[in-house]
Amino acid sequence: MKKQEIKTVQEWLPFEKILEKGIIKIKQGEYIKILKVIPINYDLKSELEKEAILNSYKIFLKTCNFDLQILIQSNKEDLSNHISTINIQLKNEKNLEIKEISKNYINFIQNINKEKKSSSKNFYILIKNSLKNLKLENINSEEIIIEELNEKFFKIKECLSRCGNITLEYDKKEEIKEILYSFLNVKNSLNYN
Description:
47% of the residues lie in helices and 22% in strands.
């Protein structure tokens, strides 16, 4: 019987290294850039604004004719600090009506949290580029890939700003590590009990 080789986590993960500005080099000669999108609240817009946003989004989809992935990540909210702050204020409150309203509010928050309906969403766009896409073997091929990814970022940022969204890139490697951890360790990032 042949003994199965056990791989380390580092060997199993496809990441080779984290570069600058949210760019990750993958082992197959591909590069990914992670962008964070801060969305608008579409539901609060008028019908005319909604139509303009949809038209801008259509332009975004037509303009960005390259590989991209939109990722939505839900995170259960930890409301314990909020509830604790209310309880501290309750101790000093003299008005019985306000005390009762505050207690009802705390119960409401706890019930929503138990039902896992209180969550926040993070929106990401992942763009990809590959050494395979370069026609010539260039000594500075990684620099060209990074430049192309940054150009794609600016194109996405410009298009999404027309929709009212803010698009951010990451400057610190630690931020990228945290995001990758949240992608790969879903159970902990969602705060399941």
